[in-house]
Amino acid sequence: MREGTSKVIYRADYQPPAFWIDTVELVFDLDPAKTRVLNRMRVRRNPDVMPQPLRLDGEELNLARVLVGGQGTSFKMEEGQLVLENLPEGNEPFELEIFTTCAPAKNTKLMGLYVSNDSFFTQCEAEGFRRITYFLDRPDVMASYTVTLRADKRKYPVLLSNGNLVAQGDLEDGRHYAKWVDPFRKPSYLFALVAGQLVCREQRISARSGRDHLLQVYVRPGDLDKTEHAMNSLMASVAWDEARFGLELDLERFMIVATSDFNMGAMENKGLNIFNTKYVLANQATATDTDYGNIESVVGHEYFHNWTGNRVTCRDWFQLSLKEGLTVFRDQEFSQDLAGDVSARAVKRIEDVRVLRTAQFPEDAGPMAHPVRPDQYLEINNFYTVTVYEKGAEVVRMMQALVGREGFAKGLSLYFQRHDGHAVTCDDFAQAIAEANPDSQLAQRLEQFRRWYSQAGTPRVRVQTHFDAVSGIYSLTLTQSCGATPGQPDKQPFVIPIALGLLDAEGRELTSGMHVLTQAAETLTFPGYSAEPVPSLLRGFSAPVILEYDYSDRQLLTLLANDTDPFNRWEAAQRLATGRALTYIRGDLPVELDAPYVEAMRTVLRHPALDAAFKELVLTLPAETYIAEQLDVVDPQRIHAVREAMRQQLSQALYADWEWAYEAHKDSGAYRPDPVSSGRRALAGLALAHLCLAARTSGDNVWPGKAYQRFKDASNMTDRFNALAALVISGHELAAQALQRFHAMFRNEPLVLDKWFALQAGAPDRNGNVLPVVKQLMQHPDFNIRNPNRARSVIFSYCSANPGGFHRADAAGYVYWSERVMELDAINPQVAARLARALDRWKKLAEPLRGAAREAIARVAAKPDLSNDVREVVTRALAD
Ligand code: TRP
Ligand code: ZN
Question: Where is the Aminopeptidase N-like N-terminal domain (predicted)?
């Protein structure tokens, strides 16, 4: 049944294409059951490559006709490819015409052309275009596209594709057409079409150059009132890229279209971005502050791809981080710049680092570990990872640290000067940044720096300090190492920029700067101190490493109270909490938070100068997955129990402070998703959660009652959802009533229902009560496993985001997982493979969980007919 290859692809095997495709004319007759696709290409041999047959990729296509120069020709099928041997010799272009049909309504993989809510959408990255027509479906083949769409006018009034609309009109039988020309050459993965009943919000803008542009956000009728924020985000993105990097919008028209069936977040198709509704639709009644923030960054991300990804694209898919790491870096900078002041920027940085450490570090330590520029894959979809995206962004961030902000902007200009309109490599990028800054540490150590692209694994930097009271010399010895990862037993030293400062005992800053660590071990000396300073290391998280230093509590409390670097203030609190959690987890002592820790938390909570958003981050304990990574043997239930006990004690010990915090922050004025008011809502939400938690032991129902009232009266989704979550998470009896009410209120809002499902599937486990709830939720009439957002809201919320509930001693969580992986694989392998990763870290689990997890993975691996996607994940999980 499966087409295409089941072969591992190696980066080292890259060969340029044997043919170029200069132009493509596509004509679509759109029909859900049978869409007809006429594809006329101008093809020529690549003179740099030995003459060979033309092999075109195709998948799940029905081939009706192949013409070369208007004449029939012989062809054969080999490994799913269409192979043409009798082609004109010489280097002159020739015309190749291919006529195929496909069945969009049956396309549950959501790759290629598919139907969602009676509209047509495409998703071509990475290898979806081959599901639309036979093609050289690889990013280094760039062509000019002309696209004609024909469809029933009543059912599909809106017909969109990349570029500019050049013609439209009516046809016979109630059909109509639209013809689009994309002025830019592009790889096939950036092709897109949309057809359906859609409405749009429009905005005209003029760029600095005076050029006018039309911005459009398309949604289903009824959703227009949820498009303002996406449009604002898009306008801000256009302005930011001009201001920060001098990069202008190069199209007359830029469109965003939202669909509720989408495998990922969004897609940067040239001029026609297609988005998961989750990253477009928002109003205060249905979306939380987090949603607003995510929309801003995803809209930015896709828009920024227009230059970093589309104008300059990837030579091959191993270079994915060339566009993704760079574009994540750009969207992170965008959100920081929009946030404004130092504190709000730090909040964004902390959130980004939290993602890196809770998701990417485990990936880098597990069976799927791979370099930012991978060396091999079975299925490229499996490499749209936090390593390629988030660690890739950190690598770009380090480059900026090494060449400076201005130097980096200069480097980016050189990159576009050299490579605009081409498909290039990660090396080309690093080379441009370095060469634009010849005197920088990056240029001087470029070859060594490139190890960040080639070596997987998270480096550890161990720090030892020494103070000689007699000479007054303070010294720091830095030692770096990196553990083995699959296929890479030994690692060479990295170039690690380490921003640091020294504080005196009163917390005053003595000195600060950046050290670039390049050797396996180096010692820094600071002369002239009368007393031992307190080191503030890796400020701003200046490199994606694990920094090991045996901080004393006293040092951490000094940093928490005084450091000029807000990131390290937060980090000090995380270390205080992590250290305590690990002690309780390892020992048999009951969880009993000490007074100095509690007092430090109280001081932060009551601090007159700190921002609410920052306080909320400091008062939030490290995630269970983060704590798990600090342990060699993991008992998720124990971690959960300890963390919950710590939370419970913080609730009680700071009861009056939480009351104050709630009352002082609960009113944030008319709803605006800005950093200040969203920070107030976040802190009020945390306070309410703690107050309801405290009611668990006290039995006092006042705060749960207030939470219920808040839940009913809230004027925005953030406050309403926080109140609901406070009830659900504390396990209060009012939760059931609130959940029922919430569902009734939002029964027609799919994105809100996703939250409703996710909250229940992710709720703290009490005596194994979550799995039965999850199974019940799957029976709910609103559940639909074919919709990725909904599947994620139930299945992933349980398997990936609820370790305490998932890792059951009776292995029932694992059995459920294996069943869902196999069920999903038959529908949508990409989504199934993501779920398969939930057991990535099984080898760290304590027995009997470890054995049970292994068995569950083996059960999946033994299934015949697995997709490449899932097979790659489970095979690597079982490998030793
Ligand atoms: N290029 C997209 C982004 O990061 C990623 C993406 C969207 C994607 N949809 C996909 C990747 C489907 C693979 C498959 O912005
Ligand atoms: Zn991207």
Answer: 75-190
**Phi-psi label, residue 699: left if phi above 0, alpha if psi -120 to 50, beta otherwise:** left
Residue 302 CB less than 6 A away from ligand 1 = yes
The type of residue at 46 is N
| Nearest atom within ligand 1 for CA of residue 110 | 12
- Atom index in ligand 1 nearest the CA of residue 389 equals 4
Q: State the burial class of residue 587 (Cβ atoms within 10 Å of its Cβ: 0-12, 13-18, 19+).
A: exposed
Does the 313-454 domain belong in CATH 1.10.390.10? yes
658, 690 Cβ separation under 8 angstroms:
yes
Counting ligands in written order, which one lies closest to the CA of residue 384? 1
Whether 1 shows a pLDDT value over 50: the answer reads no
Q: Please tell me if the CB atom of residue 274 comes closer than 6 angstroms to any atom of ligand 1.
A: no
**809 vs 96, 814, 815, CA distance in Å?**
60, 10, 12
CA angle 199, 202, 205 (to 5 degrees): 165
121 close to ligand 1 (CB < 6 Angstrom):
no
What secondary structure, in 3-state letters, does 389-417 show? HHHHHHHHHHHHHHHHHHHHHHHHHHHHH
Residues within 5 A (CB) of ion ligand 2:
324, 327
pLDDT tens, residue by residue, 315-344: 999 999 999 999 999 999 999 999 989 999
Looking at the DSSP assignment, which residues form a beta bridge with residue 275?
258, 266
Going by alpha carbons, the residue nearest to atom 10 of ligand 1 is 264
Q: Residue 211: helix, strand or coil by DSSP? A: coil
Q: Which ligand is nearest to the CA of 269?
A: 1
Cα 758 off chain centre by: 18
Structure tokens at 242: 């001009």
CA-to-CA distance for 731 and 720, rounded, in angstroms? 17
Atom of ligand 1 nearest to the CA of 266: 7
Q: Which atom of ligand 1 approaches the CA of 380 most closely?
A: 13
880 pLDDT band, cuts 50/70/90, is confident
Read off the pLDDT of residues 387-416 as tens digits, 9 standing for 90 and up.
Answer: 999 999 999 999 999 999 999 999 999 999
Q: Which CATH class is domain 1-195?
A: mainly beta
The reported pTM is 0.98
Q: Is 324 a catalytic residue?
A: no
Pocket test for ligand 1, best of 125, 306, 321 (most atoms within 8 A of CB): 125
Q: To test the ligand 1 pocket, which listed residue (113, 313, 384) has its Cβ within 8 A of the most ligand atoms?
A: 384
The reply to whether domains 1-195 and 460-550 share a CATH topology is yes
Q: State both tokens at 773.
A: 């709830």
Closest to 303 measured CA to CA, from 314, 293, 295, 315: 295
- 777 closest CA partner among 761, 759, 801, 753: 761
Please report the sign of the dihedral spanned by the C-alpha atoms of residue 686, residue 687, residue 692, residue 697: positive
Beta strand ranges found along 34-191 (DSSP E): 35-45, 54-56, 62-68, 71-72, 76-78, 81-84, 94-102, 112-116, 119-123, 142-152, 158-161, 164-170, 175-181, 186-187
Residue 159 CA to ligand 1 center (angstroms) comes to 22
**How many A from CA of 342 to the centre of ligand 2?**
27
Distance CA 234, CA 493 (A): 41
CA–CA gap between residue 304 and residue 302 (Å, rounded): 5
Is 16 a residue whose pLDDT tops 70?
yes
Radius of gyration in angstroms for the set of CA atoms belonging to the chain, rounded to a whole number: 28
Q: Which residues face 55 on adjacent strands?
A: 83
| Sign for the pseudo-dihedral over CA of 224, 229, 230, 234 | positive
Residue spans of the domains in the chain: they are 1-195, 313-454, 460-550
Strands 253-259 and 212-219: parallel
530 pLDDT band (50/70/90 cuts)? very high
Percent of the chain clearing pLDDT 90 (strictly above) = 98
Question: Ligand 1 pocket, 268 CB below 6 A?
Answer: yes
Q: Report whether 472 contacts 530 (CB < 8 A).
A: yes
